[in-house]
Structure formats: C-alpha cells, structure tokens
Design brief:
Oligomer: single chain
Number of strands: 0
Strand content: under 5%
Helix content: 55-70%
Length: 367
Amino acid sequence: METLLAGLPFHMPCTYDYVLALALAAEYYVETCRPTLAWNFNCTAARMSQALGFHKTTMQDLESLDAARRRVRLFAVIYVNDKMLSLRLGCASMRRDKEMPPDHKAMMRRGLVYDKLYSSAALRQTPEARHDTAVGLAQELDALLNDGCDIKPDFDKDVRNASGDEIFGLLLQGDRVSQLALKCLIYRTLLLTAGSASTFSAECISVARRALLEHQVVTNGLVQHESRFLELHYNWALLMSPFAPFIVLLCNVVETYNLADLELLGVVIESIEAIRQSMPTISQHLRLFKPLFEVASKFVEVKTAPVPRTENFNAFLLEANMDLSFEPALLSTFSQGHQPDVVSGQPGHRGTSFLDVWSYLDSSPPC
C-alpha cells in the first residue's frame, strides 16, 4: 500500500473518488503514527474538496440524498483531520473557519487554540492578553460541549447502534478525554498566581489529572470488553493530538515530587505496554514516555532521599542517554522553536518547547 501511495502522480484528477482515496491515505498514516505524511495527504484532499465545492451547502440541491450525505461526511472527516493535525504538528490549518457550516464548531475551537495561543501572532501578544484569550476559549469550549450541535443526536444514535450502550458510554468518556487534553493546552497559557511553586497553573494540572484518570477508565473498559474501538480511542486521544496531560503531570512530578501523580503516570505507562502487541503504533509514544517516566521516578527517589543529590532533571536525562532537553520551566514557554521571547526580549531557550515533544516523536523511525 505504501508503495502505491508513494507512486501517486503530482497531478491527479479532481474527483470524489480521488478525494476519498487521499482521505483514507491520511487516516492510514495517522494510524501508523506518521502525522506529517497524514497532513500532506489530507491537505491535498482538502484542496480537491474545496475545488469540487464540498464546503458549499448549495450543492445539496443538485445531488441525490445519498450523494450529498457521502460528500458531507467525507468533507467532515477531512475538516476534522485538518484541525487535529494542525494542532498536533503546530502549524496553521488549511481550512478557513468562515467557510464552514455551524455543525463544525467543535473543530473550529480546536483550530482557534493554535491560532490564538500557539501561532506566531500569538507569541507577539503579552502574557496578560494570552491569559484573557485562554480564559475565553475555555469558556467557549465548555459552552459548546454543553450545547452540542444539531447533528450530534443522529451521530450518537448511529454510534450507539453500532457499538452497544456500554461501549457507547465509554466512547463518550473517551471524547471527554480528548476535550480535557485540549483544555489542558488552553490552561497551559494561564498566568500563574503569586507565590506558585509550579510551572503550570493549578487549573492546568487539575485538568491533566482528570484527563489521565478518565483515559484509564476508558482504556480498562474497552480492554475488558475486548472492543475493536480501543484503537479508535488511542488514535483519537494520543495519536491525533498532543497528549498534553502526560507532559504536564510529568513536569509537576519533577518540580514538586508528587508521588500520587508519579503513580498515575506509571499506570498510564503500564496500560500502554499491555496493548503494544495488538497496537504496534502506540509503541512510538511508549518509546518516549516510558524513559521519561523512569528518569522522573529515579529523580524523585534521589531528591526525596535523606541526602538528596543536587543535579537537575537534565543531568538524569543525560545519564539515561536521552537526547532531549526537558526543563519544566522551558516547557511552559510559548516558543515552539528556539527564537527569543518577542515580548520580554529575553533570549529563547535552546531546548525543547512544549509542542516539540511530539515533533520528537514524529521524527523517530516509523513503528
């Protein structure tokens, strides 16, 4: 299949079938933990779908009901992938939100998280302005989740019929995990209260804990039922978007030596190890998350010893032969690259920024 995809011509016919094929190729690369390739195929599908007018509701009058339904669903998949991969890779979305029907509000919020908090324009804003923006985005996300959208009842009915009531409940909880992870990214930009001992705000840490706890409930439930939807949950929660809760709690452990958070991270690692044989793609995350967890465990152990060592966390990473700079204060910055801070004028960190953790994952050999 990959040989076939690699041999696709530069110029392809602009037809529904080719758009569908490109969208399926994007899904394939998402499932094999290669989001950059998924982004390339999805961008081409997005351009073709726009050229064919998939984003125009007026086309529905010219089509049969089945044809219109297929077109709308395909375009929705492309749009969702566009917003998810945009934030996953830290780049601007291909789709203009003003061209979208109101049923796509949830994904619009995801796009705004990048545009208003993580883009180059956002980096030029003051911390106070970014704080206010984050508060507004979090409130909009909460309101949207409470209100839902017009097509959600029909969608939920189809999923419930396909999965059964119990699995459907777990899938809804899995969707909450994704939303909590998104909120964690939003809360990361909140200003810290005076005297705070942590790099991240209390709201960010609290949401990160909730996300990991609910993630474990969903994983355990789907494993118990031997559900085919387990892979869907992991693709949606971990592979399609930055799973910020894990990194936030890891930073909190390094800074505060919180044993409860360390134990929760260990449970997450164990659950990933338990399914790695049936889901080889998840090993990509395990390759980074497990060594970080092990180094953090050793770091907390020696720091809480009667005679603690004085080295910082990066010294322990060097001992573990991990070529990764991982200072919690660094990961709280807005810089996705290594440029100076535009607002304060201070030199930028020459290490790993928050979203660079996932770039590190993506740059490793395929699973």
